[in-house]
Amino acid sequence: xxxxxxxxxxxxxxxxxxxxxxxxxxxxxxxxxxxxxxxxxxxxxxxxxxxxxxxxxxxxxxxxxxxxxxxxxxxxxxxxxxxxxxxxxxxxxxxxxxxxxxxxxxxxxxxxxxxxxxxxxxxxxxxxxxxxxxxxxxxxxxxxxxxxxxxxxxxxxxxxxxxxxxxxxxxxxxxxxxxxxxxxxxxxxxxxxxxxxxxxxxxxxxxxxxxxxxxxxxxxxxxxxxxxxxxxxxxxxxxxxxxxxxxxxxxxxxxxxxxxxxxxxxxxxxxxxxxxxxxxxxxxxxxxxxxxxxxxxxxxxxxxxxxxxxxxxxxxxxxxxxxxxxxxxxxxxxxxxxxxxxxxxxxxxxxxxxxxxxxxxxxxxxxxxxxxxxxxxxxxxxxxxxxxxxxxxxxxxxxxxxxxxxxxxxxxxxxxxxxxxxxxxxxxxxxxxxxxxxxxxxxxxxxxxxxxxxxxxxxxxxxxxxxxxxxxxxxxxxxxxxxxxxxxxxxxxxxxxxxxxxxxxxxxxxxxxxxxxxxxxxxxxxxxxxxxxxxxxxxxxxxxxxxxxxx
Length: 551
Ligand SMILES: NC(=O)c1ccc[n+]([C@@H]2O[C@H](COP(=O)([O-])OP(=O)(O)OC[C@H]3O[C@@H](n4cnc5c(N)ncnc54)[C@H](O)[C@@H]3O)[C@@H](O)[C@H]2O)c1
Ligand SMILES: O=P(O)(O)OC[C@@H](O)[C@@H](O)[C@H](O)[C@H](O)CO
Prior knowledge:
Layout: H1 2-10, H2 24-29, E1 32-33, H3 39-48, E2 52-55, H4 59-75, E3 82-86, H5 90-97, E4 104-109, E5 115-120, E6 123-128, H6 134-144, E7 151-154, H7 172-180, H8 188-203, E8 207-211, H9 218-236, H10 241-248, E9 253-254, E10 258-261, H11 269-278, E11 286-287, E12 293-294, E13 297-300, E14 305-309, E15 325-328, H12 330-344, H13 346-359, H14 364-370, H15 372-386, H16 398-409, H17 419-422, H18 430-445, H19 453-464, H20 483-489, H21 506-509, H22 512-515, H23 525-535, H24 541-550
Parallel strand pairs: 1-5, 2-3, 2-7, 3-6, 4-13, 7-8, 8-9, 14-15
Antiparallel strand pairs: 4-5, 10-14, 11-12
């Protein structure tokens, strides 16, 4: 309060806006780097001749993809910004883009406590993909019918591509999209196909659709959903055969695969307060009604890796000049993705994050730095159990990648990443993050019984699903589409009464849709059951079980 008052009387109030950043001296004094390019000019250029569109304009987009474009603009190898499109959470546009003239503030948090601040001016305009709003919808059509458009990238979360429920039936919104056709599209996939249809009618212009989400073989996943929506609209008569051929021809509509990596936690309230104390107004994070945690700034670590299949039928920006960007062939992307998602990074997060919640640790890094057993478990997953069965992608060394994670990235407490964030949607990830290594052990050794830390992580995730911590207190689960279903299956299991655990895990551990394999056939199902039983014994049982297996 006092600091804010002093700032006001000294006239140092800074506003994150096009006018606000004209007060260059104040920003420089605060240690914040401003764009070295003409933000208004690169926005205007993008509005007239869009080249790069992005869907899903949340945190990782702003700091990583936006940051890459910002770097290319600084170098003078890009001459326009990115067109930002939101199909899901319009609050993001209303609360985080419009009030700040589409500027963002990147806050890079180093492990020694120092920070880098940079205003990102690469986000040219923000459009809501709302078919019920003619102004936004027509603008979207203008963008997609521009010959200049080379690529559309996506960070819409894994759920953004999904059309069907686990039982194979359509989600209700997808069913409505199929029935109502392109001009009433609502879901991300329907909006995209509706816009591709406009592009097809305007001249069959080529384009690259580049998923940058953290899902396996992301390009194939995006392509499958786009083709499915196209086929469904063809059946109902909304689109013609020529359009089906256009979308299906990978020489015209390409779906490059990518591997993306940059730990980007939710915005920190402490950082918001620090920025306001530096004199920048209105830095507080918001939680939107759709549960996006977002702020005018984005906090993230410095390291970043983006491996992109070089397949862009209409040309592309000089992406290879971006920090941490590698252009490669599809096989190299695939191997890089498997290295990161199935072995080195995400399995560690998914195995230890939910357990961290049960043990009462808010921050992931603090847990690893202070709980020896959790650090041992994390290292076992990556070094002892994952590395022996991972293929080397060539462009990145798995050993060096894991070493960087454990020496610099995971221990970085300044990053403020929470175990609760790591527990979001774990049910959707267990197949790719654990199942692949388990299958590799079966292929190599006949079964996976020699694994310990991965089964412990799976048992820990299921123990977390009870919603009761290691002291016996209830806690709120992070969002996950299977929360209700699993809690129903576990309703008779009582922490402290091991006799209440009978065969409740059987349908889960044998579910090949979840784990991509039957864990009982692989020789780890019973082991996980035993670990789970031990974790139920009473207060402190989770801590003791972890110690027993890794200590
Ligand atoms: N945060 C990270 O550390 C990280 C690192 C690598 C990759 N990723 C990938 O990026 C994705 C987004 O992460 P983030 O940190 O930007 O999250 P975020 O919550 O900040 O942003 C998510 C964005 O996706 C949109 N979205 C959410 N559900 C959607 C749906 N069903 N359909 C269409 N759009 C939808 C939101 O509106 C928002 O624009 C992750 O799911 C992951 O695949 C994240
Ligand atoms: O984003 P999710 O939910 O797929 O996974 C949680 C974390 O493992 C993930 O966000 C990592 O921080 C990220 O993959 C690092 O590149």
